[in-house]
UniProtKB/TrEMBL annotation:
It comes from the Bacteria. One of its GO terms (cellular component) is membrane. The keyword Transmembrane helix applies. GO terms for molecular function: phosphorelay sensor kinase activity. The chain crosses the membrane at residues 683-707. InterPro entries: Bact_2-comp_sensor_kinase, HATPase_C_sf, Reg_prop, Sig_transdc_His_kin_internal, WD40/YVTN_repeat-like_dom_sf. It comes from Lutibacter oricola. This is Two component regulator propeller. Keywords: Membrane, Transmembrane, Transmembrane helix. Residues 731-809 form the Signal transduction histidine kinase internal region domain.
């Protein structure tokens, strides 16, 4: 790829870049944005990076393809002199034969109506039917100038040059309109129907357009329209839904009135016969011998000067712009011709020109010469043959304290402004620039800032620190702020008290800068950077690179002059409109190739069968005509597996061991989204139906096995529980058998007591109460559970008997929670009576005072309740002492029996009973508390 500069900079593509031939017939751009080149050696599809060539090897009937048309279904129809014609779609070539076998078609006047293509020659027109090209019958009116038309009313158009007229024929072969041409019509070189309503003729001098719907005829000459007497190879085409006229030297878009809008004239030296304006307003030029030329839109308004010359620094002196050119000297800009003209010829390295206004002197220094301009007179001193063989005055000059100071290779010169002689030298290596600021003479060096003061050069500190970075140039932003430009460390803003780096300049080499009001323009090794002041900071605005038309990204200097940007490079100077905006050359991102192992995945073949150790390889490409762009950056994710975007610049994506599923690869780049879908079908044993059958069968088998195991375990468990329950019931019956005689024994003692005291009435009354109690006892003992009301009745009976025995020294009290449904709640039979009996016999019996028994029933939960039995007897400790000191005639087992019975009840799982006995405060009485929870 090489550049050929006339007024603009063109990019040239030839066989060296991948074209099969430098002979280009025409250019097309399809709906996706690909640019197609039609050559005598095949067709070429270009995406901005790669040339994809189609020849007979890919299936073309021959390689000499000179015309193409695009249909909305993304088919690129090709035309050549052949017995077969067709189209290219998705990089596959399709061709269809002439219905008359072997007959060659010569489609030089081919028509397009919608998506229908009609190859048309001087005498025949064809349409595709049943995959063959069939001839279309002409009208009954015979004429050599007949043009075939596809229209609902018009059948054909007859051109009669001898009569200087055009006749329009309808479907009934009748002339419905005759158009008289205003002057003798020269031989028409190209004619065709370009859509469903427009028919066109074009020659080297004019073009005509007939509206088939209104029959309005438009006749426009190139001379009247654009001032050209002749446009060779002129043609009208539809490009991206616009009519474009092109020929040698010019290309333009036609407006709604078919006038040439904003015609672009390209240099004759290019020798282009056809041009195309693409979607991004880039102009593509076809030549017969030198391939393709490209001119992006951003370069159309640019001008290039001193191309292929190493240009240096700018100087604005008396509103005139000067620059330097290596080995050529100093050049001055001509505002009329817009070119730089030689001003001072110097065959060596020239330094930046300097104006010393205080002494009305302009200095043009170079390596060997020292030239001054004063009062319009140039004076040059040549030191090439004088030791040390170089210009001793130096390369950069400023006025300071009524003297001129300059930098030379080894330090600083003080120069007498009157006679231009060196008065004194001050040694300092690595000096790059001088500037006066705040009454100081500041030097930019390769090791920071230095200050010249009273004959001494010392480091200039900022925030009490040395600036050790290599400073190339210094620019004055204001009377209080400087801009320091470094070699490899960016740019810094300082007021000599504080310092701050400009954003996005890290590690940039900034050769120089231009300050324009509140804007800063930097000349860097990566292009031009613009900043604008925002309050107390500078905000990055934009970056200009070769994609905006710069000859190079390495910028030596920059200046704004006449509202234009002048940028100096090692390849000349470019002049850019200051408000130039770029148009993105990125058009699309797409899948170039997709492979499943060795099988191609396409839109027509997107379903593949699963294979073990599979690999999906996808090649991602873009349509991007930006010459400065590197590998594109894009984000991707493969659904349904990936849900987070992954950013990459790789052109190939690989996915391994993908299971059967429907997949969609999503791509995003430069705001453009693309999806690519494919399906991996499962093998028979991977199908959903098989998996469902296998899973269901496995579950049923597992359930069957578990049920068998559970049934067996439940049988064992039930048998064990039944055995335990029977054992518990036997033990409970045995206990009740023990408890009943125990109670009878105590009761008979009481009756005997009354008889011995000869209290017959009391003994009878006691006996009646006792008989009732015995009856209840026998009644209740037959049941495992009785109601709480029955248990309370039994206890009242018993306590009434005990009250008769103790007399006034004994009393009892029942406290029953109103929320308890005592007539429904169950309790194990005969459980509380032995506890109450113990409270009477072992608690109150030894009490010297008046004894009382309190029995409390209260609800704790839905079917749960608590029973408290309280006495004010001697207490547990005292009762134990009395028991130990007494003569044992009977061993009481009631407490053990109660605990054992409770344990057995809990073991039966029907009840959960807690039993607690404790001494009341002050060792006065005992509390027995039972909590009942029924598990039934």
């Amino acid at each position: 790829m090489w550049s050929f500069c006339f007024a603009q900079q063109y990019t040239n593509y030839t066989t060296k870049n991948g074209l099969p031939s430098n002979h280009i017939y025409t250019i097309r751009q399809d709906h996706n944005g690909f640019v197609w080149f039609l050559t005598d050696k095949g067709m070429v599809k270009y995406n901005g990076n790669n040339f994809k060539v189609f020849t007979t090897k890919q299936g073309l009937p021959n390689n000499d393809v000179w015309e193409a048309m695009i249909s909305s279904d993304s088919k690129m129809w090709y035309f050549s002199k052949s017995s077969e014609l067709g189209y290219i779609k998705n990089d596959s070539v399709y061709k269809f034969p002439n219905a008359i076998e072997g007959e060659i078609m010569n489609p030089i006047y081919s028509n397009q109506v919608g998506d229908s293509i009609y190859p048309t020659g001087p005498r025949e027109s064809y349409k595709l039917k049943n995959n063959k090209w069939q001839k279309i019958k002409s009208s009954s009116i015979k004429s050599h100038g007949e043009s075939f038309v596809i229209h609902k009313k018009v059948k054909s158009i007859l051109t009669n040059l001898s009569a200087n007229e055009i006749r329009i024929v309808n479907k009934k072969d009748k002339v419905i309109k005759t158009i008289q041409l205003p002057e003798r019509y020269e031989m028409i070189t190209r004619r065709k129907q370009i859509n469903d309503s427009l028919f066109t003729w074009i020659s080297s001098k004019k073009y005509n357009i007939l509206n088939l719907n209104t029959l309005k005829f438009t006749n426009i000459s190139f001379k009247d329209e654009i001032g050209l007497e002749e446009v060779v190879h002129a043609r009208i085409t539809i490009i991206n839904h616009e009519l474009q006229v092109s020929g040698t030297g010019v290309v333009a878009v036609l407006d709604k009135n078919f006038r040439m809008k904003n015609p672009f004239f390209f240099p004759k030296e290019i020798k282009s016969h056809f041009a195309l304006i693409d979607k991004t307003n880039t102009i593509w030029l076809a030549t017969f011998s030198n391939g393709i030329y490209k001119l992006p839109y951003v370069k159309r308004n640019l001008t290039y000067n001193l191309t292929n010359n190493k240009t240096g620094k700018f100087s604005l002196i008396n509103n005139s712009l000067y620059t330097t050119v290596f080995n050529k000297g100093f050049f001055k800009y001509n505002n009329k011709t817009k070119t730089f003209d030689s001003f001072l010829n110097v065959k060596e390295y020239p330094f930046k020109a300097a104006e010393i206004k205080e002494f009305n002197t302009v200095i043009f220094p170079s390596k060997y010469k020292f030239t001054t301009l004063k009062k319009g007179k140039l004076n040059t001193q040549n030191f090439k043959n004088v030791l040390p063989g170089t210009n001793p005055y130096g390369f950069q000059f400023v006025s300071f304290e009524n003297s001129i100071y300059s930098l030379f290779s080894f330090g600083l010169n003080k120069i007498n402004p009157k006679n231009i002689t060196i008065e004194k030298e001050y040694k300092q290596s690595g000096c790059n620039q001088l500037i006066t600021f705040k009454n100081k003479l500041i030097i930019a060096t390769n090791n920071g800032l230095k200050e010249f003061n009273k004959g001494n050069i010392t480091p200039l500190l900022i925030s009490n620190k040395k600036i050790k970075k290599p400073i190339l140039t210094i620019d004055k932003i204001s009377d209080s702020i400087l801009l320091l430009n470094t070699d490899g460390f960016g740019s810094y803003i300082t007021n000599l008290k504080t310092i701050k780096q400009l954003p996005y300049t890290n590690f940039l080499t900034v050769e120089d800068a231009y300050i324009e009001n509140n804007s800063i323009w930097l000349a860097t090794n990566e292009g031009i950077l613009k900043y604008t002041k925002n309050e107390n900071n500078y905000k990055f605005i934009k970056k200009l690179t070769i994609s905006h038309g710069l000859p190079s990204n390495n910028i030596n200097d920059i200046i704004i002059h006449n509202n234009k940007i002048f940028a100096s490079t090692h390849n000349g100077i470019v002049v850019i409109p200051k408000n130039q905006e770029s148009i993105s050359q990125f058009l699309n991102i797409y899948i170039d190739k997709a492979l499943y192992n060795n099988t191609n995945i396409t839109s027509n073949n997107s379903t593949i069968e699963y294979e073990n150790d599979n690999n999906v390889s996808i090649t991602v490409s873009s349509i991007n005509y930006d010459e400065s762009s590197k590998d594109i950056s894009y984000k991707y994710k493969l659904l349904p597996g990936q849900h987070k975007w992954i950013t990459t610049t790789s052109k190939t994506l690989n996915f391994t061991d993908l299971p059967p599923n429907n997949y969609t690869l999503s791509l995003v780049s430069n705001g453009i989204n693309k999806n690519f879908s494919f399906k991996i079908t499962p093998l028979w044993y991977q199908t959903v139906l098989f998996k469902l059958f296998f899973t269901t069968s496995s579950i049923l088998l597992l359930v069957y096995i578990l049920m068998k195991i559970r049934t067996r375990e439940l049988a064992k468990k039930t048998a064990k529980l039944n055995t335990q329950k029977q054992l518990a019931e036997f033990e409970l019956h045995a206990l009740r058998s023990q408890m009943n005689p125990h109670f009878v024994f105590n009761s008979l003692n009481s009756i005997q007591y009354y008889i011995n005291k000869n209290e017959i009435e009391l003994s009878e009354k006691y006996l009646v109460q006792f008989s009732r109690l015995i009856r209840k006892f026998f009644d209740f003992s037959r049941d495992k559970f009785i109601t709480l009301q029955q248990e309370i009745s039994l206890l009242e009976n018993y306590l009434e008997i005990e009250k008769m025995r103790f007399g006034k020294d004994f009393n009892y009290q029942f406290n029953i929670d109103n929320q308890l449904k005592i007539n429904k709640l169950k309790i194990p039979s005969m459980l509380l009576q032995p506890i109450v009996e113990n409270a009477v016999n072992h608690g109150l019996f030894h009490n010297e005072g008046k004894g009382i028994i309190k029995i409390n029933f209260f609800k704790t939960d839905l079917n749960d309740f608590t029973v408290q039995i309280l006495d004010n007897g001697v207490g547990l400790k005292k009762a134990k002492e009395i028991k130990e000191n007494s003569i044992r005639t009977h061993i009481s087992k009631s407490t053990e029996i109660i605990k054992t019975r409770i344990a057995l009840l809990n073991q039966s799982k029907e009840w959960l009973i807690t039993y607690e006995i404790k001494e009341l405060d002050n060792e006065n009485g005992t509390l027995v508390q039972l909590t009942f929870k029924n598990n039934e």
